[in-house]
């Protein structure tokens, strides 16, 4: 895959040290809460985290007993090392992949997770088709950063590897044109803890209230104006 080597080298040492750890721990609580909301009590025995980072989501899934067995694939060697260091009790395998080829058989997992991964992927549909090959269902979560202030989103998120920017409609279209059937789709504001981690106690609370209430009252205007997240549960063919 052209470009795969450069992507691997870009993220290889991303999870070394403690720079991204606090933010990802808070974000993982938020993401697992979103998964809980979307799956609506549906049970999944085997779960694969695709682009698992340093294992924060896997750790929360294990503690919540969401899935009897867990597995992970990650592009970054520092991420794999961090996942293994967590010693997650029901984690069966951790493997490195190139971003596009999963080392697993067709439909060998009940649920696949791609949480804040697709915005980093050059060939999104190729990635999602491969995820759908391996997993019966997928939970996919992305930031909705394609707002009126897209220039700011590109400037702020570009250094973190975001190359794709979505609206709720373009995200849904991506899923459908990747051969997936969207079962449930929901827009989420950031949690209070996440907002306060980024902006401080008082400013974070204000940002949380504005983002949450704006979405409730004027959802279309809110999503055109400020960034949210979208999560979707999809079935693969």
TrEMBL record:
It comes from the Bacteria. Pfam families: Methyltransf_23. SUPFAM superfamilies: S-adenosyl-L-methionine-dependent methyltransferases. InterPro entries: SAM-dependent_MTases_sf. This is Putative S-adenosyl-L-methionine (SAM)-MTase.
């Amino acid at each position: 895959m052209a470009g795969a080597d450069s992507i691997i080298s870009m993220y290889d040492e991303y999870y070394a040290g403690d720079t991204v750890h606090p933010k990802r721990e808070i974000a993982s609580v938020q993401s697992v809460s979103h998964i809980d909301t979307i799956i609506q009590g549906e049970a999944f025995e085997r779960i694969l985290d695709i682009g698992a980072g340093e294992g924060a989501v896997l750790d929360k899934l294990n503690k919540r007993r969401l899935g009897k067995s867990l597995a992970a694939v990650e592009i970054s060697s520092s991420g794999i090392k961090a996942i293994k260091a967590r010693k997650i009790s029901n984690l069966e395998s951790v493997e490195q992949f190139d971003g596009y080829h999963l080392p697993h058989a067709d439909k060998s997992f009940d649920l696949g997770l791609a949480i804040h991964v697709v915005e980093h992927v050059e060939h999104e549909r190729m990635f999602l088709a491969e995820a759908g090959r391996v997993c019966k269902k997928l939970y996919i979560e992305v930031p909705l950063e394609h707002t009126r202030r897209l220039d700011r989103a590109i400037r702020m998120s570009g250094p973190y590897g975001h190359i794709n920017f979505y609206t709720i409609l373009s995200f849904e279209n991506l899923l459908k044109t990747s051969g997936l059937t969207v079962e449930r789709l929901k827009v989420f504001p950031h949690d209070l803890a996440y907002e306060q981690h980024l902006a401080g106690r008082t400013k974070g609370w204000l940002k949380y209230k504005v983002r949450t209430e704006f979405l409730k009252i004027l959802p279309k205007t809110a999503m055109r104006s400020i960034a949210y997240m979208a999560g979707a549960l999809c079935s693969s063919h």
